[in-house]
TrEMBL record:
Cofactor(s) the record lists: FAD
Gene Ontology molecular functions: FAD binding; oxidoreductase activity
Pfam families linked to this entry: BBE (PF08031), FAD_binding_4 (PF01565)
The organism's place on the tree of life at top rank: Eukaryota
InterPro entries: BBE (IPR012951), FAD-bd_PCMH (IPR016166), FAD-bd_PCMH-like_sf (IPR036318), FAD-bd_PCMH_sub2 (IPR016169), FAD-linked_Oxidoreductase (IPR050416), Oxid_FAD_bind_N (IPR006094)
Residue ranges of every copy of the FAD-binding PCMH-type domain listed in the record: 139-322
Keyword vocabulary terms for this entry: FAD, Flavoprotein, Oxidoreductase, Signal
Organism whose genome encodes this protein: Actinomortierella ambigua
Span of the signal peptide: 1-26
Family of the protein in this entry: Belongs to the oxygen-dependent FAD-linked oxidoreductase family.
Protein name: FAD-binding PCMH-type domain-containing protein
Length: 597
């Protein structure tokens, strides 16, 4: 079996982080590394598995039973390597055309073991293999090996092998991750994308529950199921399940473990509020049930504490009765920045009222226009027009133009999602992308002064991060049942329970952009978002859509729950096999994620 590792990466020595984070002092690959504190990497022949050990683990002949993966081990390469060529991978024009055709599409990328949705996380220190780069092709942060798991036994065998050999280890389904948590230098990757079992139980009772426990309708998912598949299945059973609005995001992995918001959240809560049970493979290879009656601490941690406690191999979600949706679509333009600031202020000032009326939705703001797609469960056009009338009156007073206004009835959630897909771009991945975000407290939106301050701050961030950024999103996925849920039952940041909006700004760069310019944008983004952090103290943010260089990730992602989460992490994963970027306990590791500091 060939080991595909760039010589330049083997030679790395001192503290640099993935792509763009601030350098820190760290021990790297070529230095003296204390074995009890460091992961094993390929240039350490005293611990790195031999070719024979890898072959035995791969177990093509099936002689090792549950201790092998039966030929599912892949020597992973960057997807664009066939277009450029690299050691061990010759150029292949025919395969390159396939890569070029699929490179920017999520469904294609999710089927590639060496790809993620934000291509910058496939690189390391500017080295990698992107489609349009002009520098030599390198392995970058793409894992060296991938196990294409199709069963719980595959997961258990892989976890045991990684743990026994103390390997850098990552878990990946589709690769929808803005923090790069499903890529890792020198790593073994567990790829769960083809674990696709899905079922529905109208009378689900968690394992270990008392005899008088009330049964609930539930959907049972393996980790490879994506939301499009889950929604279609729920629709067939005339039910709703709370998930994201992107169809190819994984439904049972990091999305829900980090909180999980979506169009239904104000109606039925966050994803973590709807989890009834997890089945988890922990670091020693044991399979545990985690619910309100068994392994309660692990269950609590997996509902908001991020993906760093084990591998979820089955998730059980509460389902809900069907609903129709009334959609309101508005596009508002302004003649200059001063007018646009007033439009933005008015938008924020009306969110508390719209939230109370049970609206939810998304708004995209640019320097000259605001585009809104909002929806009201079981609403109608008359109610929609009445609810938006005060906002429209203020826009007319400002002098802004409403150049598109539509009110559309949607008979089902599936119809709403199909509509959403029709107004979204299909080619939306394979980009180099960074985000900055913050939960916006409802108290800020309850005053005109607060709305004005927020609008001014967001426009300041937009200016400070151009030309890399062009827009930002405001998401009304808070309030309602998100605010009413019992916060103590989950480990999600408490800021979700008092938030009135969630704001995200995002931007990127071309494949050929020099590393120093990438770092400059990353620094400007973090610095600019500091102004938003200052006016929202303690509010926190959503770790799945956050700054990869968040300066105080413990407070921003976990708030007061961090210490308890760390204790649970150390209980179930004492050697930190499930390390991931900006996750619980990650600050104990060096910049290469190889040695404890």
């Amino acid at each position: 079996m060939r080991l595909l590792l760039s010589p330049s990466l083997i030679a790395l020595s001192l503290g640099v982080t993935l792509l763009i984070a601030t350098p820190t002092s760290a021990q790297g690959a070529g230095t003296s590394r204390p074995k009890n504190l460091c992961k094993c990497i390929p240039d350490d022949k005293t611990c790195w598995p031999s070719e024979a050990a890898w072959e035995e683990f791969n177990d093509k002949k099936g002689v090792n039973g549950k201790n092998g993966v039966h030929g599912r081990l892949i020597a992973t390469t960057p997807v664009a390597s066939v277009c450029h060529g690299m050691p061990g991978v010759p150029r292949d024009e025919a395969k390159c055309k396939e890569v070029e055709a699929g490179y920017g599409f999520d469904k294609w990328r999710s089927n590639q073991p060496g790809a993620v949705m934000s291509a910058n996380w496939e690189t390391f220190m500017g080295e990698g293999c992107l489609l349009k780069q002009t520098t030599p092709c390198e392995q970058g942060a793409v894992p060296l090996y991938t196990v294409n798991a199709t069963s719980v036994d595959d997961v258990v065998a892989t976890v045991k092998f990684a743990s026994k050999n103390n390997l850098p280890f990552v878990v990946k389904n589709t690769g929808h991750d803005y923090l790069g948590r499903s890529m890792g230098i020198y790593s073994l990757s567990l790829w769960t994308h083809f674990m696709k079992k899905i079922s529905h139980n109208d009378m689900f009772i968690p394992d270990g529950a008392p005899a008088n426990t009330k049964a609930e309708a539930a959907m049972i998912l393996e980790p490879g199921v994506v939301w499009e598949e889950a929604y279609n299945y729920a629709n067939q059973h005339n039910r709703l399940v709370v998930g994201g609005n992107h169809p190819t995001v994984g439904a049972a992995g990091g999305f829900c473990q980090s909180g999980g918001h979506g169009p239904l959240s104000p109606l039925h809560g966050l994803c973590v509020d709807n989890v009834l049970q997890y089945k988890v493979v922990i670091a020693n290879g044991t399979v545990l049930d985690a619910n309100a009656y068994q392994n309660q601490d692990l269950f609590w941690a997996l509902r908001g504490g991020g993906p760093s406690y084990g591998v979820v191999v089955e998730a059980v979600y509460r389902t809900h009765p069907p609903a129709s949706f009334q959609v309101a679509l508005l596009n508002i333009t302004a003649t200059d920045e001063a007018m646009m600031l007033k439009v933005s202020e008015a938008y924020y000032a009306h969110q508390t009222r719209l939230s109370a009326a049970k609206w939810a939705g998304y708004a995209l703001t640019r320097k000259d226009h605001l585009f809104m797609v909002y929806h009201l469960p079981n609403g109608n056009e008359a109610t929609a027009r009445n609810d938006f009338a005060p906002f429209k009156q203020e826009l007319e007073a400002i002098g802004a133009t409403i150049d598109k206004e539509r009110y559309l009835p949607m008979p089902s959630y599936k119809a709403f999602l199909d509509f959403w897909a029709s107004i979204s771009s299909g080619r939306n991945v394979g980009l180099n992308l960074l985000l900055g975000s913050r939960l916006i407290p409802s108290t800020m939106l309850s005053s005109r002064e607060g709305s004005k301050q927020l609008a001014t701050t967001m426009f300041g961030i937009l200016k400070a991060t151009q030309p890399n950024t062009k827009e930002y999103l405001s998401m009304l996925v808070t309030g309602g049942q998100v605010a009413k849920a019992n916060a103590a039952e989950t480990s999600v940041h408490p800021g979700w329970r008092t938030a009135g909006l969630f704001n995200v700004i995002y931007g990127g760069w071309a494949d050929s952009t020099p590393v120093d310019q990438q770092k400059d944008f990353a620094t400007r983004l973090t610095t600019a978002v500091d102004e938003l952090r200052k006016i929202t103290p303690g509010a926190g943010t959503y770790m799945n859509e956050a700054d990869a260089n968040e300066p105080d990730f413990k407070d921003a992602f976990f708030g007061p729950n961090y210490q308890r989460l760390l204790e649970i992490k150390n209980k179930y994963d004492p050697q930190s096999l499930f390390y991931c970027r900006k996750c619980v306990g990650s600050d104990e590791w060096d910049a290469l994620s190889v040695c404890r500091m």
